[in-house]
Amino acid sequence: MGFVGLGKRLLEAVFIVFCIITINFLLIRFMPGDPVVHIIGEDEYLRLEAEAPEVIEEVRREYGLDKPLPIQYMTYLNKTLHLDFGNSYRTKLPVLETVLFRMRWTLLLTIPAIVLSSLLGGWLGLRAGWRKGGLLDSIVSPIMLFLNTIPTNCMAILFLMVFAFRMGLFPIGGITSGGLSGLEKAVDILWHMALPLMILVILRTASYYMLMRSTVQAIRNEEYITVAQGKGFSQGQVLRRHALKNALCPYLTSVCMQFGHILGGSMLVEVVFSWKGMGTLIYDAVNAKDFPILQTCFLFIGICVVGFNLLADVLNMLIDPRLREEGRHA
Amino acid sequence: MHKKLNGRVLAGLVILGVVLLVALLAPVLAPHDPYELGIPYLRPSAEHPLGTNDIGQDILSELIYGTRISLLIGTVSALTVTVVGTALGILSGYLGGWVDRVIMQMTNVAMALPSLPLTIILVAFLDASVWNIILAICITAWTSTARIIRSRVQQLKCLPFVQIERTMGASGAYIMLRHILPNLGEIVFIRAVLSVGSAMLTEASLSFLGLGVIGQKSWGGILHYAFFRNGIINGAYWWYVPPILCISISVLGFMLLSYCGDGSAHGRDRKEKGNAGN
């Protein structure tokens, strides 16, 4: 049954999240210096050391740092499972709220980017892969290949320069101009979103195009395509009913598995456009050595990526009846 | 591999040859000391062909010296990634069984970790030295090489020459080193070249975010200062356009070079990714 396979994948997903939590734990414990410094931050540590040393001991007890390593690990796991990530060094606000708030803005940028670019890249790649060496293939492929070599931040800077500074078509950064509400605010956010979104869509389209093109090129040589053509179906019918259907599963899997890449790309775009999402949060946290924020961001990004991988499995099962019956992945 | 030297590969070789030459001859080629302070925000002139930055350092010299660190980090990371990925791929593909299961499980986990955030967090925790950056880049980058090598080895394992060696009683280690490895030459080379490109991209992103090697010029680092010290608002195109071109062109060079052979390494890569559910 397919559900057994899905259960196994779910278990794997939990294991990966567990690995991420473990990496976070190891990072704090095996960094040089007193772990308490890395939990409450250097400034706070120095202040407390001078004014109230007993608070430091309290933190040490709370995190079980006076106990052996396995117990420390259990304490850490327990805290993470209860979503207790401590406070930011910099703002002193609870980390969880900050990260969740910022994550919304990142998802607002990345999810439309994924949807648009996977549709566009998939459609173009399907066409180009079907007619290898055809007009579309020979024009679009070199362009996409070239786009694949441009680093995200470079493209972001060039777009910022040309479209925002020189031409003044778009705002140079931020999420909203402020002081607006309702529909006006939504339109304003869309206007601010346009450039970052455009960059993500262009770059992801290039990579999805390559994916779909090579998948379709491989499928094109399969016997069932020849058979379908032999039966007298029109090219369009074969393309839609045989090629597309078979290409869709590996394509969707790759698109979902690359969610980590798009988050990486969106980090750089966010920094360039000062979009106050997770990317800028991580950037600020790195500069301030704000470790709790960094670790929590890492954990939540990991959870998102794992979630998208699971989504790929579910989608594949919905599309491909063979997977539902056999309960295994092709 | 040599007979198939087509136009794309040739172009790639030319680009990389120039980049390598610039890196090696940096002290000779650079018109100024890249750390020397001078008059800030100078436009391009005969004295400073690409102008100067916010503290008056000559940008052309910065770029020339930056070639070194970008190339060093790119190649060392790629070498590490390729050696580790190939070794794991061969072991997992040839031995199969529990070794395969353990290695593949490791690969699945490493693939699911978000690579750029993990690299950033590692560099932030460790200090930003050359070796730490290389380590941080390598930690997630070996997975696709391992997967591709594994599937190729699984095919090779079934071919007659390996079967014959086995019946003649050759040891597993001997077969893997003397018979499997030489047959992977092209695919390993292509993966290595692609790894250099992606490692250079990661390095450029890291140093753009201010996480580059401290006190060393790098292309991403120049871009970092150009962006965060208002080079863009001031319209100092000579400051931020050249590093962008350098990064893109060298990555393009490595991509082009990877088109030697029949391109199967590219195709197989994607097919493998698509079948990652195994």
Report on the structure:
The complex is a heterodimer of chains A (330) and B (278). With 330 residues, chain A is mainly alpha-helical. Chain A folds into two domains: 32-82, no CATH class; 101-320, MetI-like fold (Orthogonal Bundle), CATH 1.10.3720. Helices cover 80% and strands 0% of the residues of chain A. The radius of gyration of chain A is 24 Å and the shape is globular. Mean pLDDT of chain B is 82; it is low at 267-278. In chain B, α11 packs antiparallel against α12. Chain B has a single domain (2-277), classed as MetI-like (MetI-like fold, Orthogonal Bundle), CATH 1.10.3720.10. Chain B has helices at 7-24, 26-29, 59-95, 97-112, 115-125, 130-141, 143-157, 160-167, 172-183, 185-208, 219-228, 237-257, 264-274.
Please tag this protein with its features:
heterodimer, A: about 325 residues, MetI-like fold, 15 helices, about 80% helix, globular, B: about 280 residues, 13 helices, about 0% strand
Determine the number of helices of chain B (DSSP H or I, runs of at least 4 residues): 13
Provide the helix percentage of chain B.
over 70%
CATH architecture of the largest domain in chain A: Orthogonal Bundle
The CATH topology of chain B is MetI-like fold
Rg of chain A (CA only)? 24 Å
What are the low-pLDDT stretches of chain A, counting only 5+ consecutive residues below 50?
A: none
CATH homologous superfamily label of chain B: MetI-like
Q: Give the mean pLDDT of chain A.
A: 85
CATH domain class name of the largest domain in chain A: Mainly Alpha
Total number of domains of chain B: 1
